[in-house]
Amino acid sequence: MSVQPAGAEPRERANGLNREEGPPLHAQIRDILHRQIVERPLLPGSPLPTEEELQKQFGVSRSVVRQALSGLSDLGLIRRQRGRGSVVAAAPVLRRHLQRAGGLDEQAAAHGQRLRTHVLSVEHAAPPEPAVNALNTTNTWKIERIRYLEDVPVAFMRTWVPRDLFPHFTKELLENASLLGLMREHGYHPAGGPRQVQAVAADADLAHKLSSNVREPLLLLQGVTRDALGHGLEWFNVWHSPNTVFDVDAQVTSQPGRLSEEHLRRLRNLTRQLESELADLERGAG
Q1: d(CA 261, CA 248)
Q2: CA-to-CA distance for 38 and 44, rounded, in angstroms?
Q3: φ and ψ at 86, to 5 degrees?
Q4: Relative to the CA of 83, which of 73, 110, 151, 260 has its CA 20 to 30 Å away?
Q5: How far apart are CA 167 and CA 164, in angstroms?
Q6: Do the Cβ atoms of 51 and 66 come closer than 8 Å?
Q7: What is the DSSP letter of 11?
Q8: Are 236 and 195 in contact, with CB atoms under 8 Å apart?
Q9: How far apart are CA 140 and CA 157, in angstroms?
Q10: Is the pLDDT of residue 23 over 50?
């Protein structure tokens, strides 16, 4: 019976793998490389070790290495090139317009991208105080979702919506569905509302959900969405991964500072009136 030297690693963990228990070897290798990519030792465009080098590094067969690389490719983390090996893929960039409320799927589609939504939970929960003021109720659904772009998590969304307006919401109904689209289907037409953006540091939970690092800066979008009559439909927090670009269409007025509050009030009222009339026309057409 051999005695292992003090302080030495167990043999099954010497190269980072546990051969005695745990996931299949290809999944362990995939996860090791995944962590190296996410934690930035492997930067976009940098080559991965060759299949032969990975075989020697982990002491496994080529088929196991190929399974691991295939898993990374399916996640959109690497690009496999025939005869040239694999390189780390650049993270897909999510672009959204700060002035537009909702329509994130349409904005991604305009850039040739497709978003996927996974619902983590839908539960009856009391909202925070700002949400109570915005929605005028404490009877709300708390909805948590992750949005994926090319299988890379780009946004974590925590939303509160009134249960009295949407008693039918379930996890299954919201999976891969547009929340604002479902509101429209049930007679409530989102018109917009105030938003604010700020940089925040990722805690351990957010870092896990967005495959980022703890304390890495994220963009937090907070706001409320109301219908044309001013009723609160949702109050939300959306944490965006660092590879998010917010587009803002800035305008220079010919008379800076001359736009009165009364003028703004009239424009808001006109917008709500138009939205209300459009909603009536859509209901009549249905």
Answers
A1: 22
A2: 10
A3: -115, 145
A4: 151
A5: 6
A6: yes
A7: G
A8: no
A9: 16
A10: yes
SS3 177: coil
In this structure, what token pair is assigned to residue 273? Answer: 């009136």
The pair of three-digit structure tokens given for residue 2, joined into one six-digit string: 């051999």
80 three-class SS: strand
For residue 216, what are its two tokens? 């890495």
- List, for residues 148-206, the tens digit of each pLDDT value: 887 788 899 999 999 999 999 999 999 998 898 899 998 999 988 998 999 999 999 99
- Whether the Cβ atoms of residue 221 and residue 199 lie closer than 8 Å to each other: no
Once rounded to an integer, what is the mean pLDDT over residues 40-55? 83
Structure tokens at 233: 């439909």
Identify the residue whose tokens are 């589609």: 109
Domains of the chain: 11-88 (1.10.10.10), 94-251+260-285 (3.40.1410.10)
Report residue 242 as tokens: 């660092």
Residue 72 has pLDDT above 90, yes or no: no
The C-alpha atoms of residue 188 and residue 100 are separated, in whole angstroms, by: 18
CA pair distance 126, 247, nearest whole angstrom: 33
Region 95-123: what's the mean pLDDT? 78
Strands 195-201 and 190-192: unpaired
Taking the C-alpha atoms of residue 24 and residue 65, their distance in angstroms, rounded to an integer, is: 12
Which residue type sits at 77?
L
Which two three-digit tokens encode residue 151?
Answer: 């299988």
